[in-house]
Amino acid sequence: MTQRPPSPQTPASKPSVVPTGDSSLQDRAVLTTPQLADRLEERIGYRLDEIALERVLIELDRHGYVEWEGVTRVGDYVWNLSESPGHIADAVAKTLTGRLENWLRG
Length: 106
Known about the structure:
- A hairpin with a 5-residue loop joins strand 2 and strand 3 (77-80).
- The protein is built from 3 helices and 3 strands; from the N terminus they run E-H-H-E-E-H.
- The protein has a single domain, classed as Arc Repressor Mutant, subunit A.
- The relative contact order is 0.17.
- By secondary structure, it is an alpha+beta fold.
- The radius of gyration is 16 Å and the shape is elongated.
- Strands 1-3-2 form a 3-stranded antiparallel beta sheet.
- The chain has helices at 33-44, 50-62, 84-105; strands spanning 30-32, 67-71, 77-80.
- Residues 1-30 are annotated as: Disordered.
């Protein structure tokens, strides 16, 4: 069974440790929460609160849009975002299709 991150109020019981700088992760979109916050700041020019961002990522993980990979030695969650664009696009397409069908029927 895949380990999942705890809710923000629950301490991690026995998180797996993912070393930073692992060359096998370079072909995938794998980032820690602070790294993702940095990348988003570079792109949009606004710094997102890391705690709030992590809460969103936890919810996205619970619904299958991102994958929690583990925790670094310093306690940062590691997220695999490699499949996220496809998962999110599928969810949006499904929702839009359903709404369009309802509108056409209606």
